[in-house]
What does this fold into?
Amino acid sequence: MRVLSFASQKGGSGKTTLSGHIAVQAERAGAGPVVLIDTDPQGSLAEWWNEREAPVPAFAQTNVSRLLTDLDDLRQQGFKLAVVDTPPAITMAIQSVIAVSELVVIPTRPSPHDLRAAGATVELVERADKPLVFVVNAATPRARITSEAAIALSQHGTVAPVTIHHRTDFASSMIDGRTVMELLPGGKSAEEIVNLWGYLSERLEKNFRRTVFQSRNPQQRRPGLPQRGQFGKRQIAQEA
It folds into this structure.
């Protein structure tokens, strides 16, 4: 079972919306059975799921102390993908989820505050030696700051080639437990989610193959992570 998590210390980054949408699209694409896991005490993802009429994806409520056990149980039940939503704070819950994830998605709105806030999450992911992907979320179409945000994020990790733009159909679909693919299947928002899942699916598969290769070749170690500049901090070159 693959474990895909959405993490960010910044509230309002779109973790819950993207978690639900990606889980539904994974099912629609044949990557299921998929289970959603909500580790956020606010329970927004659970509330959305309870409004759904569709039987998939499945849902599991857990906490930090039961996370590993519950993941093992879900794996034994035959689930192929777990999509995990996390709370908007640097907590033990986020650290525990990152530790068991095969890929960590960091949704980031194209704003200075969000870019600076992403740094703490990146540090956690790098400390756990896990692959990460930034997703520029809730972007304004054709706005200069969107491309500037992608460039800034690329200095700290991989940026997904799919940008999710701000549209009202995302909020409208979440009201009654649906997604944009179910509300407006031919719309631009649905197309973006389809393309984003396609990209994340490829990354998950590549990471899985790499993990299998490294387990068979223990002498192949991942090189140390390069030292990167801090988010929102001006880098001053040291004098010789």
User: Anything to note?
Assistant: Residues 221-228, 232-240 have pLDDT under 50 and may be disordered.
